[in-house]
Amino acid sequence: MQLLYSTLTAVFEKVLPVSGLFSGKMKQFVKGRKTVFQTLQTTLSPTDKTIWFHCASLGEYEQGLPVMEAIKEKYPQYKLVVTFFSPSGYENKKNSSLGDINVYLPLDTKSNVKKFLNLVKPEMVFFVKYEFWPNYLLELNRRKIPTYLISGLFRNNQLFFKPLGSWMRKVLKTFTHIFVQDEKSKRLLETISIQQVIVSGDTRYDRVSKQIEENNNLDFIESFKTESLCIVAGSTWPEDEEILVDYINQSPENVKFIIAPHNLKNEQIKALENSILKKTVRFTEKDRKNLNDFDVFILDSIGHLKKVYSYADIAYVGGGMGSTGLHNILEAATFGVPIVIGKNYKIFPEAIALQSRAGLFSVANKEEIKVIFDKLIINKSFREKTGMINGHYVQNNTGATQTIVNEILSSKL
User: Fold this and answer.
1) Which CATH fold topology does 2-202+399-409 show?
2) Which CATH number is correct for 211-396, 3.90.1150.10, 3.40.50.2000, 1.20.1420.30, 3.40.30.10?
3) Is 131 in contact with 156 (CB distance < 8 Å)?
4) Which residues touch 74 (CB under 8 Å, ≥6 apart)?
5) Each residue's pLDDT tens digit, 339-366
6) Contact between 55 and 83 (Cβ < 8 Å)
7) Residues 6+ apart with CB under 8 A from 186
């Protein structure tokens, strides 16, 4: 199976450029990888010491950031090399990452792996959550480079736990330590004789808890919200927007809405605007408008949502109405606001936990979202109590970063 995987990956690399002709995202995926080795050659010197972090996308970067910060503080003489698999991660963070060098991860062919490692020469490596690249991991193990998985989350439907997954089980054994989010993941790994496992928790809690300490003031949101109750809908997809818009169009006069769509294509933003009957303004129009005159603010920009959640009285977090995957509810929860999500959330332990504590509510249709929004709007005591549950939950689950760093420091570079 390992040989078949390597062969198919090499073939995929050869035919990949063709896919760029049909998809803008794939074009970025292909184009971005063309200059990786050149970038590494020109930015790294033979005397540089490096630590490598790999993140699939933007969410994994945010998840790994607390550990990056801690490692950077402890080992300031090392350069951080941060790699991304997807364009949504790299394009968002190429100029603002904590990394000293930010590049796409070359595809997992044996030749790419050797060339990449020969250039980077990492003395320590971190993969975040779900990233398991067999050729990279096997070669790192062969070179005896300490390699860690952080915030890992395992489910019994993954290949590792299937009869055909024996070759991937060997890959898991190459990690020096696997830091997992929960006891269930540890028990699953123990069933396949993976023993180098530590339950650390999820580093996202550490990341979002720090957001409260930052300056979250946004003048344009204050001008828009004024004294109104505000519902913030973050990272929404069309399936989410369908039920949200129905509620917005019949909502009380004293309620304002901020919508941050996941997809910022102009035609989709325009379709969203056209479906809303109330007065709507975009972020890109904010300097030309009196924001207080509008009922709905569409955040057609990147980088503000985490701060915008601090203005929410109620939050709706998108992704759960369709099959794309629920977005990060903890970014809203840390500010102590009640959260509403769609119907598909069963693989997200933090959503299950908050629902069981009555700080989060799942809805499946327009009727259900109306019931819970109306209750949260009308009943201030209920709204504040449910929000407090979420804020306390985040604070009670911090500490994963310290657990990870303590273990790393016990085997100093």
Assistant:
1) Rossmann fold (3.40.50)
2) 3.40.50.2000
3) no
4) 405, 409
5) 999 999 998 999 999 999 999 999 999 9
6) yes
7) 180, 197, 199
